[in-house]
Amino acid sequence: MPRSSSKPVLRFAPSPNGLLHLGHAYSALYTWNAARLLGGIALLRIEDIDIERSKPEFVDAILEDLRWLGLDWPEPVLRQSHRFDLYADAGNRLRQHDLLYPCFCSRSEIAAAAAGTDPEGAPLYPGTCKHLDRGQQIERLERGDPVQFRLDTAGAIDRVGMLTFTIVGPLVTDRPQIRHAHPERWGDVVLQRKGTPTSYHLSVVVDDAAQGVTHVTRGRDMEAGTDMHVLLQMLLGLPTPIYHFHKLILDDAGRKLAKSKGSESLRDLRAKGWTPEDVRRAVGLGG
Question: Would the pTM of this model clear 0.90, i.e. be above it?
Answer without folding.
Answer: yes
